[in-house]
Amino acid sequence: MTNLDLTKPTAELAAQGTPLLEVDDLRVEFRTRSGVVKAVNGVSYSLGAGETLAILGESGSGKSVSAQAIMGILETPPAVISGGGIWFQGRNVLEMSAEDQRRIRGPGISMIFQDALSSLNPVYSVGFQIGEMFRAHRGMSRKAARAKAVELMDRVRIPAAARRVDDYPHQFSGGMRQRVMIAMAIALDPRILIADEPTTALDVTVQAQVMDLLKDLQQETGMGLILITHDLGVVNEVADDVAVMYAGEIVERGTVDDVFSRPSHPYTDGLMSSVPQVEAKGGRLRPIVGQPPNLADIPSGCPFHPRCSHRRLGAEAAPGRECSTDVPPLRLVVPGREAACHYSEEVLGVRAP
Amino acid sequence: MGRYVARRLLLTIPVLLGASFLIFAMVYALPGDPIRALGGDRPLSPAVIAELRERFHLNDPLYVQYWEYVKGLFQGDLGTDFRGRPVLDTIERTLPVTVKLALVAIVFEAVIGLVAGVLAGIRRNSFFDNLVLVSTTLVVSIPILVLAFFAQLLFGLRLQWFPIAGTNEGLYSYLLPGLVLASGSLAYVARLTRTSLAENLRADYVRTARAKGLPNRTVIVRHTLRNSLIPVVTYIGADIGTLLGGAIVTETVFNLPGIGREVFNSIRSQEGAVVVGIVTLMVFFFIFFNLVVDVLYAVLDPRIRYD
User: Fold this and answer.
1) A254 and A235 co-located in one domain
2) Cβ contacts (< 8 Å) between A196 and chain B: which residues?
3) ipTM of the assembly?
4) Where is the ABC transporter domain (chain A) (predicted)?
């Protein structure tokens, strides 16, 4: 039996200020026949009640894999959690029994996915799928669970919820389907909601509605929100803090305002310059040259160095800070800002220490 | 749904007419004279032959013969064989045997095929999975004729577990031929279930089910098996139609007096009316069970709607 108390409303915890989730040096590998793919290479972060952390990165940067590791839904094999720890409310999830981990999924941590159509089971009604949360975790009857499902569908603002509860996923529009996913995820008042690219499959106006809904629900319940995305606009609107991932590592971390206005890692800097700006209309965008790294063969030293415009190789590098051999640790650059770059001060435009 | 079924049923009429005509034409085109064959070693007198030819319209052209046949059909008369026995009686006598054989085969196919497929699909690359892969490949690649004789030899003659042929021991006599008849489909069902299950286990909604914290059993049974079984159930359904019509080899080898063996014997003795009647019935079974499958499909998968 787990001695975790998941019955108290999440809102009560929000005031205490202790972190709900701490991820420490998490490492995930995929061991396949063709070699070991290092998807997550030492990721650490923490999240408190009511906080929103955005994890930003391109495809293959390890952002989804780290989230799935936290949820305990990685397919093992081929995935292996090869190091680090995940503490949920002070207990190491990785040391729990499978059954205890299962009990956390839903009332403790829950998750919504990118493609709501394929993420919902096509052969069960949405009401049934939402109601399953109450049946599996609270032992409710089918009828009571269905009534709860209607309530939740109302709460995520699905029109005519009572009439639509027995409809199937394919009968809903994309935005409504994502609301169904959200209803399911918040059903048991989770401590933490992980949203993995929740709006990527939706068109822009619907995106805004879904993000607003998530934000409102977070305010009502005080849950912690981890938002995984590659959409800089979404991060800017919703998140407090942002962690930028590259090649399975966090390369920069800080408040969204700081990181976005003055990046201190060349990769973040490159991301910002590749975003169209209204002020710079007519000018050319500056893309990041090259390709994301092959995770089965990550470059030595700083994984970003082959694409970096600030890199210093050989003799031009400072001692111990050669970009192709010395791995840059994630370090404090200025108060409230961490980056994994030997020359962050230069990128930031402040004098080196 | 009702309208869809009605339309499909109406469509079977031209299909059955077309099928029966094709079979009729093929029997007509067979070389040899069925009337002469009736007498065996002792030739019939020319007068008798002439009379019989007249009675069965054998001197008329094909379209006239077929027209006479269809006229009979609409009066519920399937005609008689050359010995004067109504074809309907023959069907009534032989069909129960075939139905029993098909039922036994379907049970084998569904139970063994599904269980093997599910276990193999859940534990991919395990010893059991490989066993299923190898044994199904073996079964599929051996012709049913060889398999039937082999089973007869091993289980009937050597081990004497089952009767070698005939229906003297009731339902028990059907077990061995049923297994032989089912073997090919059984292997296919196991393979189909395995692949479908393995594919569905990787589906996004199964990941969702795990993320919801559902117990493993619920994830497998409710969210993986149900979806995986849709193609399997429809295959088994359609296979009932095939098994009811396709047991010619099995029934002949095991000497079961069903419609398959009857049709085989009738082809040899050129009993046109019997062949046409029975084969048309086989076609009807096939069409009917395919319709049942299509209706079932809509019940199993809410995304499919007719109308």
Assistant:
1) no
2) none
3) 0.85
4) 21-272
